[in-house]
Amino acid sequence: MQSKLSNKVIIFSAPSGSGKTTVVKHLLSKFPQLKFSVSSTSRKKRDDEVEGKDYYFITLDEFKRQIANGKFIEYEEVYEGRLYGTLKSEAERIWNEEKIIVFDVDVKGGLRLKETYGKHALSVFIMPSSLEELHRRLIARGTESIEDIEKRVQRADEELSYAGNFDKIILNDKLHEALANAETVVKEWINC
Questions:
Q1: Would you say residue 117 lies in a domain?
Q2: I need a labelling partner for 116 at 20 to 30 A (CA). Which of 8, 109, 145, 170 fits?
Q3: Residue 52 domain-assigned (yes or no)
Q4: Secondary structure of residue 140 in the 3-state scheme
Q5: CA nearest 18: which of 183, 145, 175?
Q6: What value does the mean pLDDT of the chain take?
Q7: Per the domain annotation, does 81 fall within a domain?
Q8: 129: domain range?
Q9: How many domains does the chain have?
Q10: Which pLDDT tens digit goes with each residue over 111-166?
Q11: Residues 6 or more apart from 41 whose CB is under 8 A from it?
Q12: Dihedral, 65, 67, 71, 75 alpha carbons, nearest 10
């Protein structure tokens, strides 16, 4: 008998620097029914990232081969030469554990996943308080050049226009409130 959890997914999307990864990590610590879907990327690994935990880091050529072989549920060239995507095998692995898949993906990837999973998906958009605050957070991270930060802020301006296409929007102005709101949304989804 299949678990009622084993066909559900929760999709978290937001512009870079909005705090979606912080929200996702918090939820994973609170709800044992959830399991994080590790995305693949062709970008270089940052010093603090762990292979197979944060991302599967693969070369651009290997990424393209896997696309050609139909291995991805969704993928996106988020920035020129930087691909991100969700492997079908990752979703299967999590559902085999009878867990709810939690995706932490870019906005367009989130919309594709919502389209793919339909009624089995809850899509959540993490909204930054402003583009200025987003810019400040990206600088505070200290992981990217000013040029890359500017590209992310420009992209964020466009991504904010898609917020209304998600099932829920959570404002991340005060982190403790955003985390509490996310817990409520997830608890309702698990129990429905």
A1: yes
A2: 170
A3: yes
A4: helix
A5: 175
A6: 90
A7: yes
A8: 9-191
A9: 1
A10: 999 999 999 999 999 998 877 877 787 788 777 778 877 887 788 888 989 999 99
A11: 55, 56, 57, 58, 63, 82, 83, 84, 85
A12: 140
